[in-house]
């Protein structure tokens, strides 16, 4: 019973952290900590109550696939937009190169919050070929330093690559900015 409550609490905490990620620079770290705690609780539960049902492949740690693999290489994984005005949309294109031994397929791109919209090369990128991941950031309603991420999923090893960008956003004229003391 306690592990069920603990699991529910950790799940709720992870969801809460996910929804507040737009405002918190340390959200990714906290999510990883919560996921590791959840895995620990589930591991203790499994050890205490062995189940005759075998673990599903998704529950097991992923192993590196055999055979030739694509390799995703970015010119840069970080970008600084510098200082921009609140409400100004900005975008940056992360250039991708396939330096592996098989065609590269970008399967998806997940932003850290709704203020960022990613786009990416949809067609397979041949060995030696190039593509892109575009980050469009809407600074409307944002102020101060903003740090955002886009997690790119591809048929590579490892499967995920994290792209980062930041911006210093100054308030619109006439808007209530941070209060000076």
TrEMBL record:
Residue ranges, annotated region (Disordered): 40-68
Compositionally biased spans, kind Low complexity: 46-60
Pfam families: DUF1573 (PF07610)
Protein name: Uncharacterized protein
Species this protein is from: Ohtaekwangia koreensis
Lineage, opening ranks: Bacteria, Pseudomonadati, Bacteroidota, Cytophagia, Cytophagales
């Amino acid at each position: 019973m306690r592990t069920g409550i603990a699991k529910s609490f950790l799940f709720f905490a992870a969801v809460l952290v996910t929804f507040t990620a737009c405002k918190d620079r340390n959200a990714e770290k906290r999510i990883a900590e919560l996921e590791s705690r959840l895995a620990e609780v589930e591991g203790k539960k499994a050890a205490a109550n062995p189940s005759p049902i075998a673990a599903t492949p998704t529950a097991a740690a992923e192993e590196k696939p055999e055979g030739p693999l694509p390799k995703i290489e970015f010119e840069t994984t970080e970008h600084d937009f510098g200082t921009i005005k609140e409400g100004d949309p900005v975008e940056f294109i992360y250039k991708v190169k396939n330096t592996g031994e098989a065609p590269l397929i970008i399967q998806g791109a997940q932003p850290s919050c709704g203020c960022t919209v990613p786009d990416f090369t949809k067609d397979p990128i041949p060995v030696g070929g190039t593509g892109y991941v575009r980050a469009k950031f809407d600074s409307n309603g944002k102020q101060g330093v903003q740090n955002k991420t886009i997690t790119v999923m591809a048929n590579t090893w490892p499967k995920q690559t994290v792209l980062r960008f930041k911006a210093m956003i100054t308030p619109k004229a006439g808007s209530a900015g941070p209060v000076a003391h």
